[in-house]
Amino acid sequence: MAAQQLVILGGTGFVGSHLVPRLAADGHRIVLLSRNREQHRALAVLPQVSIRSADVYNDDVLRDQFSGADAVINLVGILNAGGQHTFQRAHVELTRRVIAACHASDVTRLHQMSSLKAGQGLSQYLKTRGEAEVLVKASALDWTIYQPSVIFGPGDGLVSRFAGLLRLMPVLPLARAKARMAPTFVGDVAEAIARCVNSDKLGQRRSFELYGPDILTLGAIVRQIRDAAGLHTPIIPLPDSLGRLQAQVAGLLPGKPFSLDNFRSLRTDSVGKTDGYAALGIVPQPFAPWLPRLLQGPALQRRLNAARSLRR
Ligand SMILES: NC(=O)c1ccc[n+]([C@@H]2O[C@H](COP(=O)([O-])OP(=O)(O)OC[C@H]3O[C@@H](n4cnc5c(N)ncnc54)[C@H](OP(=O)(O)O)[C@@H]3O)[C@@H](O)[C@H]2O)c1
Question: Which atom of ligand 1 approaches the CA of 36 most closely?
């Protein structure tokens, strides 16, 4: 398929930093809409990628930015609400605006990021994901919905976050340690989206569950991270009564490292049924072999920092 003009919302984060180079390698021209382009200038080093500051909640702005595009990719998603950044606004209201702006600017193709188990369980995160999917499916657009389990890879919030906690704390109390998930590699997620972008037929008006080959409990994931990092921090699975309490307290801390809504999301196993990767001809990568590489960066950085502090 010929090179396309793509507009991506939420493309400045973890998934976007892998997806954008993948799409650029296919020759597509990419416009990234960001709430603050100055924070993400590094992404625009590729010649056919530009990044623009834009109020993505403004219908006129969206319509103007979408004008002339072949497809829109909506990657915006939040794990924690705060202030005006509610799940309803970021997931549902924004999706409604994106669909309307697609119609207003004659863009017919929408790629929508969602989550495995969208619309299920009790968390606002999954509930609003489901509501957004309903809007997309009810639209007249040629849509594709991507439903990943938890995503790992360079720059993720999974391996680096737990490795940091395991290094910092003498003991790690872990809520919902029995929650099951199928971690999926960010490069595979990017490949799935790229294949659908590159095809006239593949994936139109279709959802893809994207999950890795291993079903692991959260406890097993954290143990694997600990062992691969060469740490010995004891991991204490918490009963739900204490896990909920931990979430309530952590939800009050700056940056909300864990929240009641995260706790509720973890009550729904992030495990799929229909192999979206198989449908797209992708063999998904397992979690464990990636761990040494994912842990190497921060460890190297730590050693460099330690060496620098010794020289001062
Ligand atoms: N990472 C995972 O494990 C995982 C698993 C399943 C699904 N997903 C979904 O995949 C998508 C990408 O995930 P990610 O890990 O790359 O997320 P991310 O690193 O947090 O990046 C998301 C981007 O969305 C924009 N954004 C954040 N809050 C926003 C808000 N309130 N309104 C509008 N834009 C906002 C930000 O861009 P600017 O600051 O430039 O505006 C940010 O760079 C999300 O929809 C996420 O829910 C992720």
Answer: 40
